[in-house]
Amino acid sequence: MGEYEGKNVVITGGSSGFGFTTAKLFAGGGARVLITGRTQATLDTAHEQLGNSAVAVRSDVASLSDVDTLVDRAKAEFGLVDALFVNAGVTRSVSFESMSEQVYDDLFAINAKGAYFTVQKFVPLLREGSGVVLTTSVANGKGLPMVSAYAASKAALRSMTRSLARELLPRRIRVNAISPGPIDTGILEKSMPRDAAERNREQMTANNPMLRFGDSAEVAKAVAFLAFDATYTTGAEFPVDGGVSQL
Questions:
Q1: In this structure, what CATH number is given to the domain that contains residue 234?
Q2: What is the pTM of this model?
Q3: pLDDT for 81-110, tens place per residue?
Q4: Is residue 247 part of a domain?
Q5: Which of 104, 116, 150, 232 is catalytic?
């Protein structure tokens, strides 16, 4: 019998990166997992790898009608949910002077608004004693160039973690956040030109106390801890960053 046998887990942004790695961890432990993604081909590939224990739903957290549909699907598949990993998010590297209203709005619509209403709409399905985990970022507390709007959207998530944790205490629902630093998910290469990505990787490695990028599995283990094992913890931010936010 697996460690997560009989548990129902929903992961937004679960078709790639550490969202997918977390889905594999839970599915491998016996849980039923519902993942979401915006790109059908990526979602289909993830679903195939996860197998019959998984449900894959194309969904955009920036669309509240999509979130409503997602909640209905989760209710039909699971009834109640034991863990909700609110991981869907985007990043953009844009200087403050070049930031456009459209990019700014996209960042907040997905990273902040989408996360907020995902939790709100899932509350009726969250079992007493369940865990909610939000994905913030080390950028939420550091003055980093080129990511001012992204960092602000993640700082909003850090604030939400505290507020939602307080409001959901009467329902015995815990709300915590993981705060990843540089994790080797390929996002650098996807978000900027190759040469720039390589320079950023070298600089971020050199500036990290552990002198390396993290692995997606290290994030997945932190999510699992907060979702199920940290039964006396709520409102907290758990750094998974090689010490870069602490040292």
A1: 3.40.50.720
A2: 0.94
A3: 999 999 999 988 899 999 999 999 999 999
A4: no
A5: 150
